[in-house]
Amino acid sequence: MTLRGAALLLVLVLAAVAPGFANTKQSALDAKIRAQQAKLHDVHVQLNEKRGALGAAQAKVGTIAEQLAIANRNISTVQGQIAFLNAKMHTTESNLAWTKVQLDAAQKTLARHNDALKRRLISAYEYGDLGYLAVLLQARSFGDFLERWNDVAYVVKANEVTIRARRADAEHVEAIETGLVTDENSLRNARAAADQQTIALSALAQQRQNLLEVAQSEKQNVAVEVGELEDTSAAAEAALEALVREKQQEEDARRAAARRAALLAGESLPPEPGAPGQLLWPVSGPITSPFGMRMHPVYGRPILHAGIDIAAAQGTTIAAAADGRVIVAGTQGDCGKMVAIDHHGGLSTIYCHMSQIFVGVGQDVQRGQAIGAVGMTGDATGPHVHFQVMQDGHPVDPMSFLR
Fold first, then answer.
1. What is d(CA 48, CA 40) in angstroms, rounded to the nearest whole number?
2. How far is residue 237 from each of residues 40, 87, 231, 296, measured CA to CA in Å?
3. Beta bridge partners of 170
4. d(Cα 13, Cα 394) in Å, to the nearest integer?
5. Quick check: 124 pLDDT over 60?
6. What is the Cα gyration radius of the chain?
7. Closest Cα to residue 352, out of 324, 316, 378, 315?
8. Domains in the chain and their CATH numbers?
9. 166-198 b/e (C-beta count within 10 Å ≥ 16 → b)
10. Beta bridge partners of 279
11. What is the DSSP letter of 322?
C-alpha cells in the first residue's frame, strides 16, 4: 500500500467516533478533517483518471511506434528491391549496348556483301551475269571450261552460304536485341512500381511519425498533469496528517484523563499499546516485500512500501494484531478489500488485499480474532497480506512491533 493510501486510512481512522464522544457533536477539527478528506478524495479520483489516461497514452505511443517501425522496415525492403533492379537494369543496358554494336557491325558487313553480290554473284546466279560468262568463254579447252565452271559454281555456292550465315547472324542479333528491350521495359516498369511503393510508404511513415510526435506530446502533457496532481495529493495528505496529529493529541489527552480517573477509582487497566513486540503476526508466512523504498510491481516506479507483504494461501484466516476497534472495513483503492483497526495511543494497523472481510466498522475485536481472509484484491500480483503499522499518523516498520 502506498503512503497516499496510508494518509487516506488516517482520515478514515479519525473520522470514526472515539469512545466517549459517540453522543457529542462533531468538533470543528472533525469538520476540517471531513473537508480535507473530501478534497483528497477528489484529487485521488482525478489522479486515477489521469493515470488511466497516461497508461492509454503510453499504449498509443507504443502502437504508433511499432507501426512506424513496420513502415520503415517495409521501406528498407523496397529500397533493397530497387537497388537490385537498378543493378539488373545497368547490366541489361550494358548488354543491350554491346548487342547494338554487334548488330551494327553485322548489318554493315551484310550490307557490303549484299552490295557485292547484287553486282556479281546474285546476277550470275539468277540473271546470268556477263562477268562469269566471260570467265567461262575464256576457257582454252573443254577441260579448262569445266574447271572454270566448277570454280564459278563454288564461288556462287560459297556466297550463298555466306548470305545465309549473315542473315542468320542478323536475325540472332535482332532476337537478342528484342529480348533485351523486353527485359529493359519489364525492369523499368518494376522499378517504377517500386518507386511508387516507396513514395506511398514514405508518406505513410511520415504520417506515422507525425502521429507519434502528437502522441508523445499528449503523453508528456498527461504525465505533467499526473505529476501536478501527485504534488497536490502530497500537499493535501500533509495537511491531512497535520489535522490527524492534532486530532490524535486531542484523543490521547482524553484517554489519558480517562485512565487517570480509572486509576484513582482503583480499576485495573491494560498496558498502553505501542511497545515493541506487542503485535501478533496476522498470518504465518514468508515476507515477500519488506518495509521501505522499492520498485512498485504494478506502477513500475520507486515508491515507499509502507508495510510488509506476507505471503499466504488464498483464503487463509487473517488475525487482528492486537485489541482494538475496527475503523475501516471495505474496499479502499489499490489496497483492495481492507480492514483497519485503531489500537489507541496513536497506534493502528492495516490489513490489505483480503478476499473476504469478517468484521464491520465500529466493532471491537480481540487480539488473534479472525477479521478476514487472504486474497489478492486491489493492486496485487498474488495472494498475500499487506500488513501496515501506523504510529502517530506515520507508517513505521511493522517488524519493530511484531513478536
1. 12
2. 7, 70, 10, 20
3. none
4. 13
5. no
6. 50
7. 378
8. 25-269 (1.10.287), 274-403 (2.70.70.10)
9. beebeeebeebbeebeebbeebeebbeebeebb
10. 402
11. S
Return the amino acid letter for 111: A
Phi, psi of 386 (to 5 degrees): -85, 110
Name which residue leads in pLDDT, 212 or 88.
212
What type of residue is 142?
A: F
In single-letter form, the type of residue at position 62 comes to: G
With H, G, I as helix, E, B as strand and everything else as coil, classify residue 356: strand
- CA-based diameter of the chain, in Å? 175
E strand or H helix at 223: helix 142-264
Check: CB of residue 47 under 8 Å from CB of residue 226: yes
Of the given ranges (78-82, 172-176, 190-194, 301-305), which has the lowest mean pLDDT? 172-176
C-alpha cell at 89: 537494369
Q: Are 282 and 373 in contact (CB under 8 A)?
A: no
**Helix, strand, or coil (residue 337):** strand
Rounded to 5°, the CA angle 169-170-174 comes to 115
CB 332 within 8 A of CB 386: no
Single-letter code of the amino acid located at 356: Q
- Cβ distance 351 to 396 under 8 Å? no
